[in-house]
Amino acid sequence: QPELTGDFGQLMQWVDKYRKLKVRTNADTPQDAKVAREFGAEGIGLCRTEHMFFDADRIMAVREMILSEDVEGRKRALIKILPMQKSDFIGLFREMKGLPVTIRLLDPPLHEFLPQKDSEIDELAKVMNVTAQTLKNKVEFLHEFNPMLGHRGCRLGITFPEIYDMQVQGIMEAACELIKNEGFSIIPEIMIPLVGEVKELAILKANAVRVCDEVIARYGVKVEYLIGTMIELPRAALTADAIAKEAEFFSFGTNDLTQTTYGLSRDDAGKFLPFYVESEIYPNDPFVALDQAGVGQLVKMGCEKGRATRPNIKLGICGEHGGEPSSVIFCHHIGLDYVSCSPFRVPIARLAAAHAALKG
Ligand code: PEP
Ligand code: MG
């Protein structure tokens, strides 16, 4: 780990002897993954694939897919993106050199993908061979007042199964190619976001397994893979025993779990939250330090219920709290397997994890 040398490097080697928690990183590009590995990350705990869809050449195809009238139109649009996604995943797997990589299927608020400007609608209308008015009506129909509580996460995967099928195909083709041609060992972890009801996960898992098995048979290689979910809605934590029947791992999304437990928009919190913290109504900003009395109890319950159904279920956290020391210490005490945080927080998380283990 070239970035951590000298006394600090020595200290970090000591802390690694004591900590029980693994430390992974949140990374969407090979560059981020490289930085994180140099800081000691032991895997990727969250790759947010929606961040891969905003390039000019992809956003058009995604819009085409969302606004298509039929399945065939949707599939035609996605065929354009598949090779790009596949090379994204090859890049990440290569950089992580066999360490675990959790790839989360698409989770955007839908409005971020819809065309807004007239010029964008006109351009898309030409590609799709429909009138601009037809597209405008469709965009209007899809408009939401609360997109963060709306048509996002796995709800998108349920209504547009072709998107998740394409992503799973990209992940598995990337893995199979590296295993077959470069002798890699990879166990991809496919993660479904914003599940609140086990049936959502059961449907999406069945789709993912079908696509994985088809790709594996086509390449003729042996590949293991895991399918799991984020626990980021109170209902998911409350029903984690049922959800664990379908999930091989849980990753706690404490950004959304904080938002939905407090009923407080994570995008607008800055307006009054500083006043609450200053007045000591809230001890901390709950989006920074995990609220152990409330949100943390849901995380703890989720772990207990998950383990009751599936004793060896893998448990991690990938909300921003995964790199905040007091939250990392809490994660140690409730017995998570790993925390995942942004690359530059990896050393802090390693220290906090050792601190927790030494203090007992
Ligand atoms: C979360 O909700 O905690 C999470 C990690 O997902 P995102 O921040 O992408 O919503
Ligand atoms: Mg989330």
From TrEMBL:
Lineage: superkingdom: Bacteria
Function: Catalyzes the reversible phosphorylation of pyruvate and phosphate.
Annotated ranges, domain PEP-utilising enzyme C-terminal: 5-356
Family: Belongs to the PEP-utilizing enzyme family.
Residues annotated to bind substrate: 48, 104, 232, 253-256
Active site positions, chain numbering: 318 (proton donor)
UniProt-annotated binding residues for Mg(2+): 232, 256
Protein's UniProt name: Pyruvate, phosphate dikinase
